[in-house]
């Protein structure tokens, strides 16, 4: 796909430049800060910390982190979840597989605290899921989450490619005082964040365990005949919908349109046995 190869090429080019800049001990060029790029940070002394995994050899997958107590399934499908006051924030980036090719159709489910550091456990405020586009990109519009006791500032996310395991992790903000005292914080999960006229623009790229050696990016548009069940690709399932697949009954946890690779046994984020 043209858009895919263009994006991939441009992205690798940026990363190459950034890697050279870090190796030389200088900050990333300002001109590069407006585009989705790998998260990075420098200590006060200018010593580079570990970078978010560079997608060059497929070995450096984005780190998993604990889910925490506030995940809820069945978040709304939406890329904008500006549900309350706070500093506006966009988080954009790409999801790559092991061969650094973007992966389309990846489920990204975000949840975070409001400006006061509170999670909405009754409803779906500051919760939402979306899917990467054909170029593997995503963009979330939200606010900068507030702080709550014991943690530094963070955004939770679950990432799942069709038919692949769920990556549960958290994204962090540079230059937060509490980053140094939060035992869960990991600098490899820092976003790049810049000010943008009173708002913030953040970037982060995920590298997930999707085999690509080097072949076509997984696409999932064909339909298949399920093995003796009512589940089918290309259908809109609502939360609570029931299907059978391979002789087993499943309940839909999150509304979605099914695609090949998301057969119920493969996607525990979407279906549970029941
Ligand atoms: Fe949290």
TrEMBL record:
<protein>
    <submittedName>
        <fullName>Dioxygenase</fullName>
    </submittedName>
</protein>
<keyword id="KW-0378">Hydrolase</keyword>
<dbReference type="GO" id="GO:0005975">
    <property type="term" value="P:carbohydrate metabolic process"/>
</dbReference>
<dbReference type="InterPro" id="IPR036573">
    <property type="entry name" value="CBM_sf_5/12"/>
</dbReference>
<comment type="similarity">
    <text>Belongs to the intradiol ring-cleavage dioxygenase family.</text>
</comment>
<dbReference type="InterPro" id="IPR050770">
    <property type="entry name" value="Intradiol_RC_Dioxygenase"/>
</dbReference>
<dbReference type="Pfam" id="PF02839">
    <property type="entry name" value="CBM_5_12"/>
</dbReference>
<keyword id="KW-0223">Dioxygenase</keyword>
<dbReference type="GO" id="GO:0004553">
    <property type="term" value="F:hydrolase activity, hydrolyzing O-glycosyl compounds"/>
</dbReference>
<keyword id="KW-0560">Oxidoreductase</keyword>
<dbReference type="InterPro" id="IPR006311">
    <property type="entry name" value="TAT_signal"/>
</dbReference>
<dbReference type="InterPro" id="IPR003610">
    <property type="entry name" value="CBM5/12"/>
</dbReference>
<dbReference type="GO" id="GO:0016702">
    <property type="term" value="F:oxidoreductase activity, acting on single donors with incorporation of molecular oxygen, incorporation of two atoms of oxygen"/>
</dbReference>
<dbReference type="GO" id="GO:0005576">
    <property type="term" value="C:extracellular region"/>
</dbReference>
<feature type="domain" description="Chitin-binding type-3">
    <location>
        <begin position="228"/>
        <end position="274"/>
    </location>
</feature>
<dbReference type="GO" id="GO:0008199">
    <property type="term" value="F:ferric iron binding"/>
</dbReference>
<dbReference type="Pfam" id="PF00775">
    <property type="entry name" value="Dioxygenase_C"/>
</dbReference>
<dbReference type="InterPro" id="IPR000627">
    <property type="entry name" value="Intradiol_dOase_C"/>
</dbReference>
<dbReference type="GO" id="GO:0030246">
    <property type="term" value="F:carbohydrate binding"/>
</dbReference>
<dbReference type="InterPro" id="IPR015889">
    <property type="entry name" value="Intradiol_dOase_core"/>
</dbReference>
């Amino acid at each position: 796909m043209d858009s895919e190869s263009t994006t991939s090429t441009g992205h690798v080019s940026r990363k190459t430049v950034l890697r050279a800049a870090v190796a030389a001990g200088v900050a990333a060029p300002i001109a590069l800060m407006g585009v989705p790029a790998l998260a990075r940070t420098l200590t006060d002394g200018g010593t580079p910390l570990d970078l978010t995994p560079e997608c060059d050899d497929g070995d450096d997958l984005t780190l998993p982190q604990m889910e925490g107590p506030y995940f809820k399934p069945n978040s709304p499908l939406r890329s904008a979840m500006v549900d309350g006051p706070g500093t506006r924030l966009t988080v954009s980036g790409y999801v790559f597989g092991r061969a650094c090719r973007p992966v389309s159709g990846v489920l990204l489910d975000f949840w975070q605290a409001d400006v006061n550091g509170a999670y909405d456990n009754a409803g779906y405020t500051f919760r939402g899921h979306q899917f990467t586009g054909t170029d593997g990109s995503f963009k979330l519009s939200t606010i900068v989450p507030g702080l709550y006791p014991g943690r530094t500032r963070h955004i939770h996310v679950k990432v799942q490619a069709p038919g692949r395991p769920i990556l549960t992790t958290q994204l962090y903000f540079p230059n937060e005082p509490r980053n140094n005292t939060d035992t869960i914080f990991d600098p490899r999960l820092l976003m790049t964040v810049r000010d943008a006229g009173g708002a913030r623009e953040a970037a982060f790229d995920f590298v997930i365990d999707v085999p690509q050696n080097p072949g076509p990016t997984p696409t999932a548009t064909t339909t298949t005949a399920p093995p003796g069940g009512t589940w089918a690709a290309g259908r809109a399932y609502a939360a609570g919908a029931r299907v059978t697949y391979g002789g087993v009954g499943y309940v839909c946890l999150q509304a979605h349109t099914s695609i090949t690779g998301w057969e119920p046994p493969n996607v525990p984020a979407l279906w549970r046995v029941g």
